[in-house]
Amino acid sequence: MEVLEYYIDLKFKYQQADKILISKQEIADILFCSSRNAHYILQKWIEKGYVAWKGQRGRGKKSTLTFLKSFDEAALLHVENLVKKEKVKEAVNFAIQSNFSSSLKENLLSTIKNAFGIQHIEKQEEMNDILHMPFQHSMYNMNPFFVTIATEAHILNEVFDTLVRYNAVSKTIEPHLAHGWEVNEDYSIWTFYIRKGVRFHDGKTLTSKDVQWTFQSLINSGIDIPNKWLLEGIQDITIQNKYIISFHLKDGNRVFSNFLSAIFTSIIPIGYDINNSILIGTGPFKIDFVNDKKIVLKAFEYHFQGRPFLDQIQMWKLPETNLNPLNFFTHDNLGKDKTKGLTYTIYDNGSNYLIFNMKKSGAHQSCFFKQAVSEMIDSRKMVQDLGGAREAPSTSFIPSKSNYKNMKHSTMKAKQLLNKSKYKGEIIHLAALRFEDFLEDANWMAHKLKEIGIKVKVHPIELADIYNEDFMLSFDAVYTGEGFEDNIELAILILLRNEYGIRRFLSPSQLDELDKGFNAIIKQPHYEGFLLAFQAVEEKLKEDGTIIFTVHASEQDTFQSNLQGIHISGYGWPIFRKLWLKKE
Asked: In 3-state terms, what secondary structure has residue 563?
């Protein structure tokens, strides 16, 4: 414990006093230390200008201690010192203590926020642009094959590359690690031409053998990989030469190139175990350091599309606070100068929704009960009451397909349905992601349902909790959201097949219906037919109230005025490899 922390403890006890009469033994008792240590701490306080001390000789006489720093000043200095030492988690834990005033908490968190963002650092002849970024949940791992959370996928897209990539502007699949490809008439044989000279982060050069190794390892793995279904149709993988490889499919698949654009099909070097928590890729950033508190990504000098402009990305795992992870590149204190920044509205390409756990017994197994809940959740009213980032009421995962105009809600009808359900007043346990908007939505729904006698208890959960199946299946319902990436077709297919998503909560008969819908969707020759087939699947899930859509969200962020190259990914974050700073 540092001497400043001891000072804070003493000053907290005497917050309203400028001077106190106290003995060294009393200081020792308050600080829970020995008399000798109290004497040392007092001398350090005097040296650093924290206190003035006027001693009094004689037994029973007390000395005069004058506080030279207010409690708030000392707390602020302590947070600044922790941040300088990169003890960001400790700084946040200190700042959010419940016995601090709201204004002090706000100042302390603002100080911590200022440690984040893109900073230009010059040391001798070396210049570095470093992005400092808070992270409010643990990275489950740095392995692209097991990722299911959007923020993880965004970060790993900077570390790993795939054979092809989706272009959000042209809405087409374009070359990436493969510079071109061919496909036969029935879409059963896909041949890819690998770029020459692409390097992995360990210096090795990419060849067809690496591609074959990656896919065969995924296919043959006995481990439960969330999106292994992407590879189910592959019958054989043949190497034509060092830079040409062919995939032979059991059945023709028009959207196979979409599959190969997914982060889950990233290419790793031959010989690497796909089960490792940290893997090597070919992306613009490489993993420089990782532990349970901090992740550091470093620019990869030899990326085939050019070195990124940022030199380093540092991410800290922080406790839950009101720190928005998006604030790492935005102006926190723009004030009157806000017009100097660039403001972007980031629309959530998906929807928030409530899903009932059909694998758990309870009142929610009754279709009448679920329909009663659906009657009470008027999303239009939710948007009006809560506002904020809630852009519009939702009736679909896809914002452009939502149509709330003809939706009507009736408390009387809800009561009638609830009576038919034979609900007996038991508590409905609702899990909700521990984000401010999600918890507000969940509590709003709990309040509305209380009007017809349904008791709901809201349980905040972490993002990382989605990996714990037993824990997630212990709830009657879950309130969460689905944020689609730019490639809507691929996002829809992942939604229907990802074992960590909606599938986890559906009954066997519902899963059968979902799989039938998936097979119908994948055979559609055109995008519009694809969407219509997906909407039919949605309607099946909505008709008995298993899924209740709530809102589409958006968020406005004003970026640093000197920040250039801002391109927002489908995950709602800037693409790190394109960011750069201009001199102001």
From this structure: strand
